[in-house]
């Protein structure tokens, strides 16, 4: 069997469901604006996603880290890949396989994709009432391995999510001035997009969900070993780049000043109060 004839759906049958032929999905991905992306509903079998909800609920405080050192981001992420239980590991056993990598390569046109077993910046991610992530372009180099980030995949895990809770993943124009796409973080909705500059995206509106509800997702990044002949938009290594209007907004200046003058234990107490 030649590579061209290889059907990646065969080894993924029962695990991954696609709404269309791979060529059609690729055309949608490349034709999407403001930058290449694809939204797929009900891609994964419930038998893999339902256990993730239980695993998140059972995780302890020490397994999470608050990402709030920069006033433009306030989220909660899994501390490391070592925190994964059987449910998370079972999902990785799908999305890190050669067949799944080949599927992503056929959709995106990026060949020789590599997974990240360390889940740097990935894995379980939650956002609580009041959390946000200003519009930005993702860092394009993995923290320690030096691999080049090429694709991001977000699997949303939110049942009965209401639009008025905010939490939409927003895709912005290259100049960082206008939102063009808004994606509700609904259960079993998967978003695949190109990691490149200036592919601006974020969750800029603070969450307005009840205090007992969280925005939950599982994030996976895919890489290549070198930039080589890759597009100029990814050749220069960079960390997170915030869109121009979010570089130093008035509110972020205020938050930055407060962070500098208020003792950390007071900040933690205020945050706990806001979450209750």
Q: Can you walk through the features of this model?
A:
The protein has helices at residues 22-31, 46-58, 86-95, 98-108, 232-235, 250-261, 264-275, and strands at residues 37-41, 64-67, 73-78, 123-127, 132-137, 148-156, 169-172, 179-183, 189-194, 201-203, 215-224, 241-242. Residues 249-260 have low confidence and may be disordered. Strands 1, 2, 3, 4, 5, 6, 7, 8, 9, 10, 11 and 12 form a twelve-stranded antiparallel β-sheet that branches. With 276 residues, the chain is α+β, with helices and mostly antiparallel strands. The longest helix has 13 residues, at 46-58. A hairpin with a 5-residue loop joins strand 2 (64-67) and strand 3. The radius of gyration is 19 Å and the shape is globular.
SS content category: alpha+beta
Large-scale geometry: globular
Number of helices: 7
Q: Compute the separation of the termini in Å.
A: 58 Å
The run of helices and strands is HEHEEHHEEEEEEEEHEHH
Number of E-state strands: 12
Q: Spans of 5+ residues with little confidence (pLDDT < 50)? A: 249-260
Average per-residue pLDDT, rounded, comes to 87
Strand content: 15-25%
Largest sheet: 12 strands, antiparallel
Question: What's the helical proportion of residues?
Answer: 25-40%
Radius of gyration: 19 Å
């Amino acid at each position: 069997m030649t590579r061209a004839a290889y059907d990646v759906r065969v080894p993924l049958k029962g695990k991954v469901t696609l709404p269309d032929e791979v060529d059609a999905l690729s055309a949608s991905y490349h034709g999407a604006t403001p930058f290449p992306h694809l939204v797929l509903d009900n891609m994964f079998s419930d038998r893999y996603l339902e256990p993730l909800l239980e695993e998140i609920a059972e995780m302890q405080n020490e397994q999470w880290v608050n990402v709030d050192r920069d006033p433009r981001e306030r989220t909660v992420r899994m501390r490391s890949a070592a925190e994964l239980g059987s449910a998370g590991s079972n999902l990785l056993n799908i999305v890190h396989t050669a067949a799944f990598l080949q599927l992503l390569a056929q959709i995106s046109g990026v060949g020789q994709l590599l997974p990240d077993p360390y889940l740097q910046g990935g894995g379980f991610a939650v956002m609580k009432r009041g959390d946000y992530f200003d519009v930005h372009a993702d860092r394009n180099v993995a923290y320690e391995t030096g691999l080049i980030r090429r694709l991001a995949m977000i699997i949303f895990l939110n049942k009965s999510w209401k639009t008025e809770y905010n939490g939409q993943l927003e895709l912005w124009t290259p100049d960082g001035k206008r939102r063009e796409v808004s994606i509700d973080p609904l259960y079993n909705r998967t978003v695949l997009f190109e990691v490149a500059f200036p592919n601006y995206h974020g969750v800029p509106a603070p969450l307005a969900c009840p205090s007992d509800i969280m925005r939950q997702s599982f994030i996976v990044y895919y890489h290549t070993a070198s930039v080589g002949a890759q597009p100029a938009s990814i050749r220069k290594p960079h960390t997170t780049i915030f869109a121009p209007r979010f570089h130093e907004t008035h509110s972020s200046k205020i938050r930055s000043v407060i962070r500098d003058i208020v003792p950390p234990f007071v900040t933690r107490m205020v945050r706990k109060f806001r979450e209750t």
